[in-house]
Design brief:
GCV_H/Fam206, actin monomer binding, 6-stranded antiparallel sheet, Single_hybrid_motif, Abitram, 24% strand, actin filament binding, 189 residues
Length: 189
């Protein structure tokens, strides 16, 4: 199993050896397909990384934007729980809905750490599940449609039912790009 350089640099103090199950990380995205033969938009343009510590998935685009979603192993999906509500009021003074970003470099976005809470999901069996950022960076967008239609979280978890979009720091991404090209050179030799 190869280590994921992009996310491991953003996960800081978490044990990255136990976080990723890369072997079958793309198979679950086939459920997003409209046509069984053609890959979905999510499959074509995003690289999925499962974060088993939180049972969540980070979909990384080539432009560095990361979409935070549920992993197939998350109890909400694996136990077919009915989602009643999604609350973006985190503990303390943070309300993720008050996030305002502007400009090319997304100024004004709330800063997130790997273990920052994005939202709390309440299910019909009275259980509550906390969804985390999973990577450090700036919060670009929260999926406000989950407030009015929380069932999107289970019906379309890897497309319309995403939790949020995070932009990781550029410096770390440049460092990871250099590490990835070095590892590709070693593989080609």
């Amino acid at each position: 199993m190869r280590e994921n350089n992009f996310l491991s640099s953003h996960l800081g103090k978490l044990n990255t050896n136990k976080l990723f199950d890369i072997m079958d990380s793309t198979n679950f995205l086939k459920t997003c397909r409209l046509d069984p033969i053609q890959p979905s938009v999510t499959e074509r343009y995003f690289t999925p990384k499962l974060i088993t510590q939180y049972d969540q998935c980070v979909l990384k685009h080539s432009n560095r934007l990361c979409i935070i979603t549920l992993a197939p192993s998350h109890p909400i999906l694996s136990q077919n729980l009915l989602v009643k509500s999604v609350h973006f009021d985190t503990s303390g003074n943070q309300n993720r809905l008050c996030n305002k970003v502007s400009g090319k470099f997304k100024k004004g976005g709330q800063k997130l750490k790997e273990d920052s809470v994005l939202c709390t999901v309440k299910c019909s069996d009275e259980s509550e599940h906390i969804l985390y950022s999973c990577i450090s960076g700036k919060l670009v967008e929260i999926n406000e449609r989950l407030i009015e239609n929380p069932s999107l979280l289970t019906e379309k978890p890897w497309s319309d039912g995403y939790v949020g979009i995070v932009l990781p720091p550029f410096i770390s991404s440049r460092r990871n790009f250099a590490e990835n090209t070095e590892s590709k050179k070693k593989c080609n030799e």
